Amino acid sequence: MRTTTVGDVTLLLPDLDPEDLDQVSDLSDGDVRDGLVDGVSWRGEQLAEQSIRGCRITGADLGEVSWEAGALYGCEIAGTDLSGATFTGISIERCSVTGTRFTGTRFIDVRLKDVLFDSCRFDYATLNRVSVAGSVAFTNCTLGHGSWSSCRLSGVALRSCDLSDLELESCRLDGADLRGSRLHHLRTPLDNLHGVVLGEDQLSDLTRLAVETLRIVVQAEV
């Protein structure tokens, strides 16, 4: 395992050696462990109560996968398509995810711990009742036009992300680090931003959001 730091968040992540992994091409009914999953297509597969552990997944097509009540643990995922997938009641822990597409993906009752999402696309993704149980960071991710509801994301790092037209409803983000992220057109009641950390350069976006949310009329003096 290795550690990395994003802002004030320190994450414990896997450090896999491809030479120690066995090539995996087929998705069996059992758990997948210590596998090298390169360029496979498991599009539309149905997974229930399965675990994927200690695997490196690169260039794979996992679009429209449906995964319920399982675990993703100690994995590295890079350049993979997970668009249109549905994750329900799974745990994602000690994982590094880079350059991966989650367009239109749905996360329902998902638990995150020590997970780094770097340069990923979550546009039009839905997060419902997602919670963090440890360090979690999103860096350089596109989160636009998504919908997050009833999520518990205290202390999460959302650094240098595009939050344009992201809709937040009944979310808890206290202590979340949003420095460097674009807040323009973020759609949320102000109480969802209670206790977040911003940079001085983001105050104009926050002011604009407050004016729009409170329907304040700004007029020139006569």
Say which CATH homologous superfamily is assigned: E3 ubiquitin-protein ligase SopA
Spatial gap, N to C terminus:
64 Å
Roughly what is the average pLDDT, rounded to an integer? 93
Percent range of helical residues:
under 10%
Number of domains: 1
Q: Assign the CATH class.
A: Mainly Beta
What is the strand content? Answer: 25-35%
- Oligomeric form: single chain
Q: Report the principal-axis shape.
A: elongated
Largest sheet: 12 strands, parallel
The CATH topology assignment is: Pectate Lyase C-like
The Cα radius of gyration reads: 18 Å
What structural category characterises the helix and strand content? mainly beta
Annotation, overall tally of beta strands: 21
The number of helical runs is 1
CATH architecture: 3 Solenoid
Write the element-wise H/E pattern from the N-terminal end onward. EEEEEEEEEEEEEEEEEEEEEH
Q: Low-confidence spans: pLDDT under 50, at least 5 residues? A: none
Pfam family, one: Pentapeptide_3
Protein name: Pentapeptide repeat-containing protein
Organism: Micromonospora sediminimaris
InterPro entries: 5peptide_repeat, Pentapeptide-BTB/POZ_domain
